[in-house]
Amino acid sequence: MRRRESDRCVYCGRIFDAGTEKTDDHVFPKNLYPVPRRSDWDPIIVPACEDCNRKWSDAEEHFRNVVDSAGFNLASEELYLDKIQRGLRRPESKGRIRDLLSMSEAFEVDGKTRLRIYPARDARVLNVIRKIVVGLCHHHEISTALSMERIRADVLRFRVPAEDLARLQYEQREADIVEYWYGVRTEAGVHSVWLFRFFESIGFIAVVSESEDGTFPWEANLDPRGKGET
Q1: 221-230: string of b/e by CB count within 10 Å (b at 16+)?
Q2: Domain check: are 95 and 145 in the same one?
Q3: What is the pLDDT of residues 66-84, one digit of tens each?
Q4: What are phi and psi of 31, to 5 degrees?
Q5: CA angle 196, 6, 58 (to 5 degrees)
Q6: Does residue 228 fall inside a structural domain?
Q7: Would you say residue 225 has pLDDT above 50?
Q8: What does the pLDDT read at residue 85?
Q9: Domain that includes residue 211, residue range
Q10: Among positive and negative, which fits the CA dihedral 86, 202, 197, 149?
Q11: Of the candidates 120, 143, 161, which is a domain's last residue?
Q12: Is residue 163 one of the residues assigned to a domain?
């Protein structure tokens, strides 16, 4: 990555000058970390303009609430009992509670009704995953100011075989909070592949296209109705 790329916003590519202030952005939202862990946390920080840094704050708070609701480890419980409960007590947070309920469905476990949350039902959640991928591409010196239009993101709906994970680079920022795996140019037309796991339970996948329009080579074999060629 060229030295010049450290002098511009990693999200929009804007050059820092007298009219554009440089700020530090946490690639993984810092609100994912319970307060007692802050002194131990080694965050990934990238340069961002004020506009890009500010515009993600609301979506990242929503993202935190969603992934914490799907987590079942001690870190997610600590986060809920501290930051999330305090946040949900604010009068303006009624909408956040409605958002969580709209993404959930009731199911029975041992005769008790529980809620299962479906993160992919909310575009804001997947957009935060895309934003994280852009920040990590800069951090790992793969590319900077990557267009989010090139990124497909979804909940990880299958178990990744161990041999496939072994081919990817593994990283973590406190393994019980966030782990991720990535590979660059794993196949033709693919810029990079990213797997994420939050709170040891909920997973996401993101695939970045080599093409600026966000298409992949195999999509040429699909007709407009989404069916394979006959």
Answers
A1: eeeeeeeeee
A2: no
A3: 999 888 899 999 998 888 8
A4: -75, -5
A5: 50
A6: no
A7: no
A8: 84
A9: 133-218
A10: negative
A11: 120
A12: yes
Kindly report the average pLDDT of the chain as a whole number: 85
Burial of residue 220 (CB within 10 Å: 0-12, 13-18, 19+) is: exposed
Residue type, 86: R
Binned at pLDDT 50, 70 and 90, residue 1 comes out as: very low
What pTM did the predictor assign? 0.86
Could you tell me if residue 128 is inside a domain? Answer: no
- Asked if residue 95 belongs to a domain, the reply is yes
- Report yes or no: 204 and 156 within 8 Å, Cβ to Cβ: yes
Q: Is the dihedral of CA 5, 10, 14, 17 positive or negative?
A: negative
Over range 201-212, report the average pLDDT: 94
105/165: higher pLDDT: 165
